[in-house]
Amino acid sequence: MTKILYGNIIAKKIRNQINKKVLCMKKKGQRPPHLATILVGNNSVSMTYVNNKIKDCENVGFKSSFLHLPNTITEKKLIKIIKDLNKDTLLDGLIIQLPLPKNINKENIIIAIDPDKDVDGFHPLNIGKMTMGIKTFIPATPLGILTLLNYYKINTQGKHIVIIGRSRIVGMPISILMAMKRSPGNSTVTLTHSYTQEIAYHTRKADIIITALGVPKFLKSNMIKKSALLIDVGISRVKDSTNTKGYKLLGDVDFDNVYNKVSSITPVPGGIGPITRSMLLKNTLIAVQKRKK
Is-contact 207 264, C-beta < 8 A? Predict the structure, then answer.
């Protein structure tokens, strides 16, 4: 098995596959898939994510729309904008970049999105379908993890998987997916979180650890067993005066500290992140296919 599980390679292949499908659509006289992103406020990290998504759309031939709204916008006005976009028959996917300002209820915004355009996979209807094993949009990061496991032919059947973090974006959905009777899946899953006592007690027993905590270098060598496989979803900006950007990106795993002990590991950056973005494109293409049926 490859020691370092690079996501960039997988993401590039997926983008190429999507681009070929888009070219075929255009040759048939069909319009390209259309993905819209809403960003509220001026969070610099969120802006970087949005810019990357826009570039991804351009690279595969998607049409991309970007609505940059002030953080003073009311929840009522934002919901009105979303409902108008829901009615747009020329729009296939809609993303609300999180986090939102404190004056806006995130749950109300997610529920306002048309489930058939919810390519993030966060709408309760899509989460419910996923939980029941019904075909639907799977949140991009969990879908990216499944894609990585498939690509590297990692056997998860009967394995003990420990997940660090229980967010609806990563931890909760991937815990459900990995426990399902499917491949990848058929695993025994332990979901840990901020109230879990002695997380290391659980991680030392894990064959596979998926961490989405957002705490730089949290997972150390003494917290894992020999030959464990680590999937690092966490990503944090840490100040770095030696870097021209003024910061560097670090994952939840102390990479250098664990490298000689693990069987395989995803890097940060260049691991799950690029695949996650390509999964948004994949879900948008699925939305187009659903619309045609």
Answer: no
